[in-house]
Design goal:
This protein is of the alpha/beta class. 34% of the residues lie in helices and 14% in strands. A hairpin with a 6-residue loop joins strand 7 and strand 8.
């Protein structure tokens, strides 16, 4: 009796200021490394410009369309998100995993899952947000105008305006269940077998860098609070504590932000092993 085990396909979501052409190499590395796997390389809007100037919920829905319009993901898939693409994958997991094609595992390469903020004590990297956007964002970030205009505003967590941030009900506050506990979002978060997060203090782009592994800025943008010391972690508002206690949150050493798309050796040695799951 020969059992033909089928691999779950891998869905790749590119990062900010890029299109799917930027993750074509990554797609090839997966194909090279896992014989027989299918890889779907998704894109939001027109790629590069859309990652900044497209409402974040629209970006999440474009990712959802890419996943659900492909019949290969019907029984499940492994989500591989790069940078902002990792945030979109997290959002897909929590919003849609109970009703659409299900993610079986989430692998993030420097995803800002703990939020993003820069520009007071920390330096803003212009690659992430152009300077003129940075200046507008600080003043009006939680207004409907900016939330509809600038994608990253949906996870802009200003440590100097925490009350405004919580009350803003932007996407990150929803996913973290800060205002009330939405059990669907919590159950969906815990519906993957594991969440694998690569991050590095050499990241150079995500602010704070350890947001890639669920830390956040504390009272300013110079001091961080670890994942375990976040109040919403301790209250287990969205399932992070449960997952971590069960050993299902892996926080692994990454590399410089721009290297994820270029360092084939790192990718094949460290990332590939987490992309290989069989459909039982």
């Amino acid at each position: 009796l020969i059992l033909c085990e089928k691999l779950y396909p891998v869905v790749i979501m590119h990062g900010i200021n890029h299109g799917k052409d930027h993750t074509e190499k990554m797609k090839q590395w997966v194909l090279d490394s896992i014989p027989g796997v299918e890889v779907i390389n998704c894109e939001v809007g027109q790629g590069k410009i859309s990652t900044i100037f497209m409402n974040l919920m629209d970006q999440i829905d474009e990712l959802s369309a890419c996943i659900n319009n492909d019949k290969r993901t019907k029984n499940g898939f492994v989500g591989l998100g790069v940078s902002q693409g990792g945030f979109l994958m997290r959002a897909y997991l929590q919003y849609y995993n109970n009703q659409k094609n299900p993610m079986k595992r989430f692998v993030g390469l420097a995803p800002p899952v703990g939020g993003y903020y820069c520009g007071n004590l920390s330096i803003c990297n212009e690659f992430y947000l152009p300077e003129f956007i940075n200046e507008i964002v600080h003043e009006l970030v939680y207004s409907d105008f900016i939330q509809n205009l600038v994608g990253p505003a949906g996870y802009w967590r200003d440590p100097y305006q925490v009350e405004n941030y919580v009350n803003s009900k932007i996407i990150l506050t929803e996913l973290d269940n800060l205002n009330y506990i939405n059990m669907t979002l919590k159950d969906n978060f815990m519906s993957v077998d594991k969440i694998v997060l690569f991050g590095s203090e050499d990241d150079g782009l995500i602010s704070p860098w350890c947001s890639t592994q669920f830390c956040q800025w504390a009272g300013d943008d110079n001091t961080t609070v670890s994942m375990e010391n976040r109040p919403d972690y301790q209250e287990d508002r969205f399932g992070l504590k449960t997952m971590n206690t069960q050993g299902r949150i892996l926080r692994l050493k990454g590399i410089n932000h721009h290297q994820y798309n270029h360092d084939e050796t790192f990718f094949k040695k460290n990332v590939v092993q987490y992309l290989k799951i069989y459909d039982e």
